[in-house]
Amino acid sequence: MSHCGQMSQWLSRRPLTKSVFSIHSTTTSYAAASSLPLSTTKVQILKHKLEPLGITLDNNSCLSGMYHNLYCPKCKGGQLMERSLSFHIITNGDFAMWRCFRPTCGWAGQVFADDKELDNKPDEESLRLEPLGPKLVAYFKERLISEKTLSRNAVRQLSGDKNVIAFTYTQNGLIVGCKYRTMEKRFWLGKGTKKVFYGLDDIIHATEIIIVEGEIDKLSLEEAGYQNCVSVPVGAPGKVSSKDLPPIEKDTAFQYLWNCKAYLDKVGRIILATDSDPPGQALAEELARRLGRERCWQVRWPKKDEFSFFKDANEVLKYMGADALKRIVENAEPYTSAH
Ligand SMILES: [Zn+2]
């Protein structure tokens, strides 16, 4: 239970007083009559959204209907280290707003406690999806991805643009988002896209899964006979963090993993088939330390020539074929950290 939660409970035992909007005090007091207990949920949502912005709430600043002077994460209060950020949660806790009163800074903004993402759930229309045209089908064919696999995975293109692939993200059969990809390997996410693994519905009943580093690698493994495969939605970290694992709510780069925790908890064996380059290996390590090394296995990509290794599942599929890819996955070894 957070401090804010305790504070709400403590306050809720006191008689509630209607809020007074005129209070603009620059000092805070627990006993202020205008402070209403906020629902823990609303405060938690606000805290969750404020922390990445550098605004950390303590007991005092969780109180609604009052103005609080905090340190500004942008200018740090200048040389005098003033508490220059005027911060306010409105009385019903629906949103928080702030402004830094140092003229050279003036940082201002607001966040809402409701889950706005729920209001604009993505769908085929809002994501502007249309069936793949012949140009992109040919692009995939060259990578040995069949139309059958494209169809089963609902791969689309951006409507009106024959050069932008749209990988649809689904959960329980419903679209929850989309990643667009140009021929030049530029990526962006569709509006409202939920942070989850790509191919999530394919591991609902799986007790053994494969994790790859790109949507095309998932499609490649399907060509080799594996549907129990998901791809991470975002690229690899540059290197393995030297820090301890952050708490889940602060582990922003891996939020997609925690959002899928229920799917992963029942899995006994996880084969990591990320790219063979250093960022891909760093990703494998970051996944393994979150998933538990003891259930992780690792694919060893074969040598391409004297100097280099095959990069990923699609490259193996393309140059060695589906059977070879299948064998390589079968020969995954227990995970050992390269670090
Ligand atoms: Zn400032």
TrEMBL record:
The EC number(s) this enzyme carries: 3.6.4.12
Q: Which residues form the Toprim domain?
A: 207-296
Gene3D superfamilies, from UniProt? 3.40.1360.10
Q: Which SMART domains match?
A: TOPRIM
What InterPro entries does its record include? TOPRIM_dom, Twinkle-like
Cite the entry's keywords alphabetically.
ATP-binding, Helicase, Hydrolase, Nucleotide-binding
Recorded hits in Pfam families, A to Z, give: Toprim_4 (PF13662)
Q: One GO molecular-function annotation for this sequence?
A: 5'-3' DNA helicase activity
Instruction: State the superkingdom.
Output: Eukaryota
Can you name this protein?
A: Nucleic acid-binding protein, putative
The taxonomic lineage of its organism, from the top, reads: Eukaryota, Viridiplantae, Streptophyta, Embryophyta, Tracheophyta
